[in-house]
Design a protein that fits this description.
Hypothetical Protein Yqey, Chain: A, domain1; single chain; globular; carbon-nitrogen ligase activity, with glutamine as amido-N-donor; GatB_Yqey_C_2; Glutamyl-tRNA amidotransferase; 151 residues; Asn/Gln_tRNA_amidoTrase-B-like
């Protein structure tokens, strides 16, 4: 379980006196605990299917912060956010490459064309369908980019 792993790594970071890792993990653990409370659950650990979106949200926040800090000329803060981003990313499964996304998009569009249910004007629906299908495996921006290139 991801939540249990996060709690265990907090202990390891404490022993190693790794404050950067400790801060990132504590923030993630707090999000998990808040979610448990919001669900009204009596379980000790949040299920993985609930932890993964929290991790993704934290990663997105870090990316936004990095961009803002770089615009503001605060490279020191941007570097710290980048380090936390690496730590948080280690909890997610590996994403497939843009090349692999393109192959999957081509296959799905070919399938839709063969079923006569393809309409290039409905690219938004195609993107939505593929993002849902590839959730957790591919970045949504890569899916959108691949669909737009192919159409």
């Amino acid at each position: 379980m991801l939540h249990q792993t996060i709690k265990n790594q907090i202990k390891e970071a404490l022993r190693a006196k790794d404050t950067l890792r400790l801060d990132a993990l504590r923030g993630l653990n707090a999000l998990c605990l808040n979610e448990l409370i919001a669900m009204g659950s009596s379980q000790e650990f949040l299920p993985d299917d609930k932890v993964t979106p929290l991790i993704k949200r934290s990663i997105k926040q870090r990316k936004d912060s990095i961009e803002q800090f770089q615009k503001g000329g605060r490279e020191d803060l941007a570097q710290r956010e980048q380090s936390e981003l690496v730590i948080l990313s280690s909890f997610l499964p590996a994403m497939i490459s843009l090349q692999e996304v393109r192959l999957i998009v081509r296959e799905r569009i070919a399938t839709l064309k063969s079923n006569d249910s393809f309409d290039p004007k409905n690219s938004g629906k195609i993107i939505g369908m593929l993002i849902k299908e590839l959730s957790g495996k591919a970045d949504g921006n890569d899916v959108k980019k691949a669909v737009e290139e192919i159409l």
